[in-house]
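Issue 218. Parser rejects a valid record. Input:
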Amino acid sequence: MTPTCASRRVRVPMHKIAVVATLVLATGAVGSTHTGASSTPAASCLPSWRLVKTPRVGIGEFTAAAATSPKDAWVVGDSFGGDFALIEHWNGSGWNVAWNPDFALGGLKDVAATSATDAWAVGGGDSTSLVGHWDGRRWTRVPIQGAKTPLYGVTALSAHDVWAVGDGVIMHWDGARWKRVASPRDATLNDVAAISSSDVWAVGTQNDGLFTMHWDGHRWHSFPGPNVGDQTSWLTGVAVVSTNNVWAVGESQSGLSIRGPVVYHWNGRHWKAAEEPSGGPINGIMARSATDIWAVAWDDPLLGGGGTTIDRWNGKSWHVGVNVRFRYLAAIASDKRPNGLWAVGSTGDPNGYLPRVKPLVQRYGC
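Output the parser choked on:
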């Protein structure tokens, strides 16, 4: 995820969502498979959401997106229940499949980029961590010591300052190697976002409750809670606008089937429950400013819900921008244009009641 005013992807816990996909192989670098985009937008128009064609890769799901410019964006995902990586690149006119044999085993959960020659993707399997780096020519798997579980979130401040989080683990890249940083081993961290090298947030769950951590430049501080009663709850995404303006989102569950959204706001001193958008559990959040925050949520239609919603916070309240049944969106990110966004996921139902048809990319703008 990008370091300033954005939080891309978010991961829904693995026991809640089954991910399946098939990857079309392309060697080495980006560019072996290409799909064109729609015609050039008009000079003046009302922004809207539209589907963008991607290369045919069979059944699958995208889980995260990141962009450094309107002509440089990445989406990642996984296939065959998370066993294989799925990576595609946007060059300004179309999406291309990117793949490296080193990524054959292990799905990808998140991606972050600082430039056209510096991007990171993380994921893994049940007992392995997967970290890949893009150097402007190809993706390479990077050895990582001290992490034997999947990594779910990554954020990059620079080429020598990158954070990754997962099941009971926080890792830091200093430009030369990955190093494990002390963290609670019983906490699952699903997302991480940063605004500076001394202001980093990670969110997830601990003991079936909400859990957040903050890096102040010297060490991580834990913030158990906030408390949402006797419900099982977890945080899936975090967006940092400023030191005194941080948003954390996720879901709560009471019983076996009643699931709802969770939204909390950090004002510089403490976390406080905030207004929740209509719809179901929130999968992803990103922020461009205090009055321009976006979230994607899923309210299962087969359980009486309305499907996917894309919601926007204008500084005062949430407004539903899109409501689509049986299109599952996992993450949302800026495409670096004014008012431009990427939203990624899959067609079908994430709980497995309906087959996932193919990875899905939607774009917002003119």
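Fixed in the parser; the record now loads. The first strand starts at residue 35 and ends at 36.
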